[in-house]
Every structure is written in C-alpha cells, then in structure tokens.
Amino acid sequence: LLRSGARPGDLVVVSGAPGAAAHALQRIRADKDTGAPQRSALDYPEPRVGLGLSLGGLATACIDLSDGLAADLGHILDQSGAGAEIELDRLPCPECLADLPEDKRWPLQLAGGDDYELCFTVPPHAGGELERISASCGVPLAAIGRIVSRPGLELKKKEGGRYELASAGYLHFPGQGADC
User: Fold this and answer.
1) Taking CA 173 as the corner, what is the angle to CA 170 and CA 174, rounded to the nearest 5 degrees?
2) pLDDT tens-digit profile of 132-160?
3) pTM of the predicted model, to two decimals?
4) H or E stretch including 75?
5) Which residues of the chain form beta strands (DSSP E)?
6) Which residues pair with 49 in a beta bridge?
7) Could you tell me which of 178, 175, 158 has the C-alpha nearest to residue 111?
8) How many CA atoms lie within 13 A of 21 on its CB side?
9) 67: helix, coil or strand?
10) How far is residue 64's CA from residue 174's CA, in Å, rounded to a whole number?
C-alpha cells in the first residue's frame, strides 16, 4: 500500500475512532484520571495489520495514523498531488470524547496522533467491499470525505462552514515548517 495513489473522486476512509489516545495523554499531562479505555488506547494501540493486508488491490493510498489524521492524510495528499474535503460530522467519535464540545474534540481527533488506525482512499464504488472488509476484520470503517483535485485539506462543518485546525499533528522535525 502506497501513499501516492489517491485520485479525485476517491473516498477517504478511516478505521476505528481516532482521538482516544490523545485524550488520555492530555489528561495525564493535566494530572487527571484517564479511565481504562483511553489509557489502553494510548498504552496498547492495536495496529491494523490485518485490515491493511485486506486492503491490497482496493485501497488507492493508505497510511497509519501515528502523527494525527490531518498530518498523516496530508502525506497522502502530498504524495498523490491532490487535496481532500473532510466532513467533520462523519468522523467516528470515541466514547470518551462524546461529551466534549466539537472545538475540544476535533483537535484530538484530527491532530492527536498515536491512534495507529488507518486512513486510506478507495474508489467511490467500493462501499460494498468496505462493508465486507469491516465485517471480516472486525474493525469499523467510516468514509469521512473525498479526494479532490485542488491541493490542500478542507475541513467542513455540518452547517457548511470551514474549520481551521491550529496544528495538523506531530512534527518530527520542528523548525522545518508546519506542513506536517
């Protein structure tokens, strides 16, 4: 699976529900109880190896979510020479974030990282195949947007406005720009 095959019209799909690990880390840093599920998400992530193997021949591009959804999807977009529109109301929400307001939840889901879920693109007609793969791997999958020809990542609110993310995710080389 490469990062370079996403094409306009492809669906952007995410496995699981990103954000729990970032929420646990945020709570640890604030010296607050994390709760077992999100602490487990941080300490014992489940890399989606089986899912990745199942995507061979279907996914046009794929990446794991170690640095945050926005940053890692950005790598696919850069390598594919494309952009994406993400519908924020379609982001699967971990139970531990359900009570947070959107402005507190979305940064954790989009820029938190350490989820080790997969973000991948598939042709728009792949819905039935995604359902089959989800069931066989036991991993929930959600189509959260689509690939577009214009560069950049557009985060769209349900009511039609745009959401501006302060930070896209983890920077491996601080000072090298904020494109990560």
Assistant:
1) 75
2) 999 999 999 999 999 999 999 999 999 88
3) 0.88
4) helix 69-80
5) 11-15, 61-64, 83-87, 118-122, 141-148, 152-156
6) none
7) 178
8) 22
9) coil
10) 21
